[in-house]
Amino acid sequence: MTHHRLFVQDLAAGYGDRNVFAGLDLDVLPAKITAIVGANACGKSTLLRAMSRLLPPRQGQVLLDGKSIHTMPPRKLAQTLGLLPQSPIAPEGITVSDLVGRGRHPHQGVFSRWTRQDDEAVAAALQATNTTDLAERPVDELSGGQRQRIWIAMALAQQTDILLLDEPTTFLDIAHQVEVLDLLVDLNQTRGTTIIMVLHDLNLAARYADHLVAMADGRLHARGTPGDVLTVETVRDVFGLESSIVADPLSGRPLMLPIGRHRIKREEVA
């Protein structure tokens, strides 16, 4: 199987008259899961928007297999690269099945009709996100957690080789967070999908990602395996937080324990 390669080269992006970051380089590992972590407003979401062409670069470029994504036809790009942005907005009154079906648009030509393959892709995406029973309901009647799973289903229905997700676990309780991340691992392992996701939870990022990228103040502070990146020094530099790093007893990956001002001891049991 041939895996597509995404590379960020000397990239600068921002809003108004301010650059969020500049001169940024990132070589995304193909067929692996990369998690981008960092404090609020450090540039994580801006980087993902620039990598998906939602935000035009002010300098540099994003390359897909050596070609600039900014010169590619939108439909062709969307057949290879999919994005789940932060807080997407659904058209008023649209049903779940219709919204998820929009993930199939890049695979349809101007005159092509809906096919059995499209039906199968939508059904598989709904089943994978445990939302099949919601298919006929209007999206605006769903809870925040249900909506998030529907948006993930739409991204899955697009069946791209590269998938970018900005906070895919937003609005989800811990059980559904783990369910979604397990689903992304399945997608990566069975289809070889390259996944780049922004996550707030350091410990979930360390458990599920092959590669961590820690951002701070618009720059890449550290990158590498979870064991290389999730250290006491990185947590201090990136989050301004003192911590202790131990081995996760389940995965063997690093587990960050925050050290706050109040160290509450467990009560003695008589």
UniProtKB/TrEMBL annotation:
Membrane-topology descriptor: Peripheral membrane protein
Q: Does the keyword Membrane apply?
A: yes
Q: Which UniProt keywords apply?
A: ATP-binding, Cell membrane, Ion transport, Iron, Iron transport, Membrane, Nucleotide-binding, Transport
One GO biological process this protein is involved in is: iron ion transport
What PROSITE patterns is this protein classified in? ABC_TRANSPORTER_1 (PS00211), ABC_TRANSPORTER_2 (PS50893)
Q: Cite the Pfam families for this sequence.
A: ABC_tran
Task: List the source organism.
Answer: Tianweitania sediminis
What's an example GO cellular component term for this entry?
Answer: plasma membrane
Question: According to its UniProt record, which protein family does this protein belong to?
Answer: Belongs to the ABC transporter superfamily.
Q: Where in the cell is it found?
A: Cell membrane
Name of this chain's protein = ABC transporter ATP-binding protein
InterPro entries, A to Z: AAA+_ATPase (IPR003593), ABC_transporter-like_ATP-bd (IPR003439), ABC_transporter-like_CS (IPR017871), P-loop_NTPase (IPR027417), Siderophore_ABC-ATPase (IPR051535)
* Residue intervals of the ABC transporter domain: 6-242
Which terms in the Gene Ontology molecular function aspect does this entry carry?
Answer: ATP binding; ATP hydrolysis activity
- Keyword Acyltransferase listed: no
Chief place of localization: membrane
CDD domains xref list: ABC_Iron-Siderophores_B12_Hemin
Give the transmembrane ranges. none
